[in-house]
Amino acid sequence: ARPVLLVLQAARRIDEEGGVFNPAARQRIAMIKFVVPAMTVRVIDRAIQVHGGGGVSSDFPLAFAYAQARSLQLADGPDEVHLEQVARMELARYKPRPT
């Protein structure tokens, strides 16, 4: 449910608060780029575990799905890049403002 909630929050912020350049929307988008591919890989990995040796054979499409999901996880940059971006945005919220 967490990935769906992040996507819905990002969509709402984009619609209501000024598009993809809104910092709050950008933060949610960076979170989505990390959470959704990781969740996808985790779900496919569990399905492979359930199917045992068959999960990595050509009898089931799970090995192909895992390779595709893992490739997509790397396509937009390493997870660390997205996590660092989220951390920077979160820390900026608490940065002391000049008085």
Please give a structural write-up:
- Helix content is 74%, strand content 0%.
- It contains four helices and no strands.
- The protein starts with a helix and ends in a 6-residue tail after the last helix.
- The mean pLDDT is 87.
Question: What's a quick, concise take on this entry?
Answer:
This protein is mainly α and 99 residues long.
Write the layout of secondary structure elements.
Elements: H1 2-16, H2 23-51, H3 62-75, H4 79-93
Helix pairs in contact: 1-2, 2-3, 2-4
Key traits:
99 residues, mainly alpha, 74% helix
- How confident is the prediction overall: mean pLDDT? 87
Using DSSP, what is the number of strands? Answer: 0
**Portion of residues in helices?**
over 70%
Based on CA inertia axes, which overall geometry fits?
Answer: elongated
Low-confidence stretches: none
Instruction: Tell me the fraction of residues in β-strands, as a range.
Output: under 5%
Per DSSP, the total helix count is 4
Q: Give the biggest sheet.
A: none
Structural class computed from helices and strand pairing: mainly alpha
What does the radius of gyration come to?
17 Å
